[in-house]
Automatic annotation (TrEMBL):
Keyword DNA-binding among UniProt keywords: yes
Organism from which the protein derives: Larkinella knui
Record's keyword terms, sorted: DNA-binding, Transcription, Transcription regulation
Descriptive protein name: AraC family transcriptional regulator
InterPro entries: AraC_XylS_family_regulators, ExsA-like_N, Homeodomain-like_sf, HTH-like, HTH_AraC
Length: 268
C-alpha cells in the first residue's frame, strides 16, 4: 500500500502507511487536528522529541516546522484521522463566537492524549470513509464545529491559537536558522517563516552568513550529525533523518566529503 490518503471532504481525511517508516519535514499552512488509530509517530521539534501511539490526539499549529516519522506497529499499519481547521472555517466560527486573543510565542503543538470527548468526535468520522461519494459539506461543518467546541472546552487557552490569523513578520535570520536548520524545507518556506520573499531571504542570508543557504544548511546538519554520533554514541542510521538528510547513502557521502572518513568510522 505504501502511503495513502483518502479524502471524504477537503477538510477530512484518513491517512495510512504500511511501509517500514514514513518521514517528512512539514510546515502546515493550516491547523491540523489528528487522531492516531494505529501505529506509532515520532515528532521532532527543535531539540525535543515526542512519541505518540494509538488513541492519542494532537493539534498541529500552522506555520510551525516539525519532523514527523510514522511507523507501523504490532502488525498494523500507521493510520490516522486528520481534520483541517482552515483559516476560512475558523474565521467564520469566531465571527459567531467573539473572543479577545493575546499573542502566543511561540505557538507549539498541543497534545490531548486520549481525551474521550475528542476521541469520540473523531472516531465518529470512521464510518464516513466507507461512503462512495463525498461527505456533504453541512455534515462536515457540523463535525468540525463540534471538534472546535470540544477543543475550547478542554483547553481554555486554545482561542489564542485558533483565532489568531496573523502572518509571520520579519524576524532575525540568525535566531530562526539556528533553531530550524535541520528541517528539509524549500527556501521560499524558510523565507515566508522569516517574513521575507525568496529573493530577500537569499540576499539577507548571504549578507548575514557569507555563504549560500544550501551550503550553510549542509554544514550545520553535518556538524549536528557528527556531535550525535561521536558524543552521544548514536548510530548514523539513527541520526541522518533527524538532522535533515533524506537518504542514508547521501548522508554518508556528504559526511565523508566533509570529514574525510565515513560516519561509521567514529560510531561505537
Amino acid at each position: 500500500m505504501g502511503h495513502q490518503t483518502h479524502y471524504i471532504h477537503p477538510d477530512l481525511k484518513l491517512s495510512g502507511f504500511d511501509g517500514t517508516f514514513y518521514k517528512a519535514d512539514v510546515l502546515f499552512e493550516q491547523h491540523l487536528l489528528v487522531w492516531f488509530i494505529s501505529g506509532e509517530t515520532k515528532i521532532i521539534q527543535g531539540d525535543k522529541t515526542y512519541w505518540f501511539g494509538a488513541g492519542d490526539t494532537l493539534l498541529f499549529p500552522r506555520n510551525q516546522l516539525v519532523t514527523v516519522i510514522n511507523y507501523p506497529k504490532n502488525g498494523l499499519p500507521h493510520q490516522s484521522v486528520v481534520m483541517h481547521l482552515t483559516k476560512k472555517r475558523l474565521t467564520d466560527f469566531y465571527a459567531r463566537n467573539k473572543v479577545d486573543i493575546r499573542p502566543m510565542q511561540p505557538p507549539i503543538f498541543r497534545t490531548f492524549d486520549q481525551h474521550p470527548l475528542l476521541k469520540s468526535c473523531l472516531a465518529s468520522l470512521i464510518p464516513y470513509f466507507e461512503l462512495n461519494e463525498p461527505l456533504p459539506d453541512p455534515i462536515a461543518s457540523l463535525k468540525i464545529d463540534a471538534a472546535i467546541t470540544i477543543l475550547r472546552t478542554i483547553d481554555t487557552t486554545i482561542d489564542h491559537l485558533l483565532a489568531n490569523f496573523d502572518e509571520p513578520g520579519k524576524i532575525s535570520l540568525v535566531d530562526f536558522m539556528e533553531q530550524n536548520y535541520m528541517f528539509n524545507m524549500r527556501m521560499d518556506k524558510f523565507g515566508y517563516l522569516t517574513g521575507r520573499s525568496l529573493t530577500t531571504f537569499k540576499r539577507d542570508f548571504k549578507k548575514t552568513f557569507q555563504t549560500t543557504p544550501q551550503k550553510w544548511l549542509t554544514e550545520k546538519r553535518l556538524e549536528l550529525a557528527y556531535y550525535q554520533i561521536r558524543e552521544k554514541k548514536r548510530k548514523p542510521s539513527e541520526v541522518y533523518l533527524e538532522v535533515g538528510f533524506e537518504n542514508l547513502s547521501h548522508f554518508g557521502y556528504a559526511f565523508r566529503k566533509r570529514y574525510g572518513y565515513a560516519p561509521t568510522e567514529i560510531a561505537g
